[in-house]
Amino acid sequence: MRIYLTEDYDAMSRRAANLISAEVIRKPDCVLGLATGSTPVGTYKQLATWNQRGDFSFKEVRSVNLDEYKGLAPTHDQSYRYFMQDNFFDHIDIDVKNTNVPDGLAADPAAECARYDELVRSLGYADLQLLGLGRNGHIGFNEPCDHFVKETHVVDLTQSTIDANARFFASADDVPRQALTMGIGCIMAARRVLLIASGADKADAVYNAFCGPITPYCPASILQLHDDVVLVGDKAALSKLIAAGVPVCE
What we know:
By secondary structure, the chain is α/β, with parallel strands linked by helices. It is built from 8 helices and 10 strands.
């Protein structure tokens, strides 16, 4: 595992964008696993700026997103399909037909989960999987529980996740209580995992993920078993790793 320490959120976003753009340049038809939430927004903005400048192209890239709220239409302004269009896809030259997000309105959620697993498998899994990190250690919407779930599945969101996402909705009551999320198996099948973290409120989760025991009660801890993980975080998010003497690169 490599850990890159950056000064702040903007520097973290640039470093992450550098790693993703390098993958696209190396393999123009690569499969990118993508994440939503506030943390990757800066990374997506930087990638869009470089793409619009002509530094590289997303025309051949295929993408698979981690998750989607159950019950939200793609046009809902808090759906993750809408998020990806608004924050990334609409600003780059990717073919929207090559972008994939689970269907939150699927009449048969279990069948949709199976379909999504088969889709990701058919693409050969992600060449690079971008992840954020929840305060409770979740990746995607794989919440803390008593076992790791391999397959894409419907998950009941924990109260801490609902509370964290409530700022995006009119009220906490409007936050969906369930989501479809890529399972740990698909995430771990990616050839490289890039996890980004920013802010002091992520310091405990980062420390537990990489210095604590491997446990489904901290889902991100499974990344300790992956062969190629890159962690990019700012000083606040990595503060407890640094205090513990974990070596980092700048």
